[in-house]
């Protein structure tokens, strides 16, 4: 398993993109719209096939019938809410996780068009907070391969009140990393840009 992307959700996408540009010195590139979900995103490369997704409401879409993903409708400010790991056979990865006692959910098909009009298609499991969701890009060109503006990922910290239980679930999806004791669950990333390090 390898880090695919971090999800930085916000109730105000333009403001958050501007804030990150001011702190990192890097302007996130427009990604695209998610039809039917009421969201769109901007992207910053994190090195290799990894990136930061900044996702928020899309005012050019009608309000979606269901709540926007990642709890966007309830957010009062930007937050690092989830992350994804890349797999090559998502159905097999789901089966392995279930065999180890963790259910990441069924894989579903997703797609969006880039600003240039290219169609990106992928499959993913449902986001579940600190345990990363699985994503399989299949034959689609990975977004990080499109020359994104770049920042460095210095560290990613996972905090949880019960590190042992979370470590077991992480291992079920092929992630082996330390979990620090914390009174509340959280993800914290440190990024390195032109203006120095920024914690989100």
Automatic annotation (TrEMBL):
Pfam families cross-referenced by the UniProt entry: Glyoxalase_3 (PF13468)
Name of the featured protein: Glyoxalase-like domain-containing protein
Gene3D superfamilies for this protein: 2,3-Dihydroxybiphenyl 1,2-Dioxygenase, domain 1
Ranges of residues in domain VOC: 2-138
Extent of the signal sequence: none
SUPFAM superfamilies: Glyoxalase/Bleomycin resistance protein/Dihydroxybiphenyl dioxygenase
């Amino acid at each position: 398993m390898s880090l695919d992307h971090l999800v930085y959700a916000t109730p105000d996408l333009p403001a958050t993109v501007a804030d990150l540009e001011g702190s990192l010195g890097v302007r996130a590139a427009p990604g695209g719209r998610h039809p039917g979900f009421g969201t769109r995103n901007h992207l910053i490369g994190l090195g290799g096939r990894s990136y930061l997704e900044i996702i928020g409401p899309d005012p050019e879409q009608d309000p979606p019938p269901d709540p926007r993903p990642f709890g966007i409708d309830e957010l009062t400010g930007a937050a690092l809410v989830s992350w994804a790991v890349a797999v090559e056979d998502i159905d097999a990865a789901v089966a392995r996780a279930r065999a180890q006692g963790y259910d990441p959910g069924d894989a579903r098909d997703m797609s969006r068009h880039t600003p240039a009009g290219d169609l990106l298609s992928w499959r993913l499991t449902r986001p579940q907070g600190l345990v990363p969701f699985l994503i399989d890009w299949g034959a689609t060109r990975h977004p990080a391969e499109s020359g994104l503006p770049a920042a460095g990922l210095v560290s990613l910290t996972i905090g949880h009140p019960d590190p042992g239980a979370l470590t077991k679930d992480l291992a079920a999806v092929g992630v082996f990393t330390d979990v620090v004791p914390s009174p509340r669950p959280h993800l914290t990333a440190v990024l390195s840009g032109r203006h120095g390090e920024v914690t989100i």
